Fold these 2 entries.
Entry 1:
Amino acid sequence: MTKTDSTLDKPIYTISAAAKLLNISVHTLRMYEREGLIVPFKKESNQRLYSQGDIDRINCIRNEINESKISINGIKTIYSMIPCWDIVKCTKKEREKCGFFNGSNLPCWTYNHNQNICGTKTCRDCIVYSQYSECNNVKELIKSIAR
DNA sequence: ATTCTCACA
DNA sequence: TGTGAGGA
C-alpha cells in the first residue's frame, strides 16, 4: 500500500512537533519558509501546520545541507529548475507573461502565478509542489530532463 | 503553554 | 543560526 497524496498533505504537525521530528529548531523551520524552500499551511491565526509531505521534503533539504554540503541558495536554484510550465502544461501565451518561466533562480512556488493556469489556487494545491516533496522525485525529474 | 513577528550585543 | 522582546 502506498500512501495517497491526501495522506501526505494533511496539515497535522504544529511547528514544535515538526521541529522535534526533524531535530531542528522552530527558528530554522521558519527560516526555510522565508527562503522559499517550504510552504506550510497557515491557519487564520497565522499559525503554521506541517504535513507528512512537508516533513519528507525538509528531511531531503537537511540531507542536502548536511551530506551534500549544498547551501540554501543552492537548493533554491535546484528547485528553480523544476519545469513547472511543462508539468502543469502552461500555454505559450501563459509562458510569455510568466515571470518564472522567463528566467528565475527561485522555486516556482515563491511566485503568485495569477495570470496563468495556476490561477488563484495556492502552491500547496499544485502537483509541482506536492509531487516533489521527496528527493528522489526531484532527482528523477532532473535525470529525465538531461536525457 | 505555544506560536508569531521583528530585531540584533 | 540563536536569543529575546512584545503581543495574541
Note: Residues 25, 27-28, 31, 45 of chain A lie near DNA strand C (CB under 10 Å from a C1').
Entry 2:
Amino acid sequence: MSAGDFESRWLSPDVNSVWTRFLQVTHRLEHHIDRRLQEQHGITHTQYEILLRLADSDERAMRMSDLADSIVTAKSAVTYQINKLSEMGLVSRKKCGRDNRGIWVHLTEDGSARLEQAAPCILSLVRELFLDAISCDQAAELDKLLGTWSDNLDAHDRNPVAYPGHPGAEAA
Amino acid sequence: MSAGDFESRWLSPDVNSVWTRFLQVTHRLEHHIDRRLQEQHGITHTQYEILLRLADSDERAMRMSDLADSIVTAKSAVTYQINKLSEMGLVSRKKCGRDNRGIWVHLTEDGSARLEQAAPCILSLVRELFLDAISCDQAAELDKLLGTWSDNLDAHDRNPVAYPGHPGAEAA
DNA sequence: ATAGGATTGTTCGAATTCGAACCAGCCGCC
DNA sequence: GGCGGCTGGTTCGAATTCGAACAATCCTAT
C-alpha cells in the first residue's frame, strides 16, 4: 500500500474496533493479573513470569539474555528484576564455567515455593478470564494467529527500517 | 475449554503455550509500534492513542476520565500525558460548563495534523503485523473472543475479590 | 439546605521500564 | 599473538506508570 492511498488512510470501522479492543483487553488483562498477584503474593507479574520460566527450563536456570528474550523486556529491566528477586532470596546468580561473561540465574528453593504458592491464584485467573472463553478449535485458531503475528514481528525485527509500505521511513 | 483441568495445578502444555505466546506477542507488538512511532514521529503510542480517541470522538474532545477508561491507564497517567501533549500544543484543556470539576480535552489543529501525519505509519504497521494475518472469519471470531474476554474482565472488576475458584481469596 | 457519599482531576513518591554507554570476555582472522 | 568485532551484563539517567491522598464539585436523601 502506498503513501498516497486515501482509502487505506484509516482502518475500516470493524477492523479498527478489533484492533482497539485488542489493545484494551490486553492492557486490562495485564493490569488485572498484576494487581491480583501483588495484593495476594507480593510479586509482580514480570517477577512471576521470571520464576515460571526458570521453573520450566532445564536445570531450573537460565541466562540473563535468554530471560530477557523470553519475557520480552530490555536487558536492563531483567538485571533490575533479578536484583530484586535475588534480594528476596527467590533466585541466585551463578557463574557459568563455559562462558565467563555469562551468568546463570537459578531458582532457589524459596523461589520454587513462592512460585507454587502463587501459581494457583494466577492460573485460575488466566483460566477464568482468558482460557474458558476459548473452545478447542478457537485455541488452535488463536495459536495459528499468534504464530503468524510472531513471524511478522520476526520479519520486521530482522529488517527494522527498510520495510516496504510504510511512508516516512527516510523522510523527515 | 479444558473443563477437566479444573483441578490441575499447571496448565496443559498446549494451552500454556497459547497463553505464553499471547503475552509475548502483545508485548512485542507494543514495543514495535512504540519504537517506530517515537523514532519517526516523536510521540509515544499512548500519546498517539489519545490523539486518536480525541479525533474519533464527537466534538474532538473528551473528559479526562473517559480518556483514562478508553486507553486503560490510571487517571494520573492521563494527567501526565495531557500535560505533555498540551505543552506540545497538540491538545488543549477547556472547562466544561455543566460540570465544574470536569475538564474537556480538545484536539488542536496541530494535534489533528500530527495525528494525520503519524497515522499512515502506524496503520500500515498494524496492517502488516496484525491485520493481514487475519481472514474475515478469523476477524469475526477474534472479535467475539475479545468480547468475551472483555465481559469476563467486567465481571471480575465488578466483583474484585470474592470470585469463585481462586484460592487465597477469603472475602471480607 | 445540607450532610454524606460518590466522582473528577491533580499532586506526590515509589516502582519499573527503556535505551545508550560502558566494560569484560569470546571469536575469527590476519 | 594480537586486533577488531560481537555478545552478555551492568550502570546510569530519563521517561512513564501506578496507587494513594487530596481538593473541589456534584448528587441524593433527608
Note: Residues 44, 46, 73-74, 76-77, 80-81, 99-102 of chain A lie near DNA strand C (CB under 10 Å from a C1').
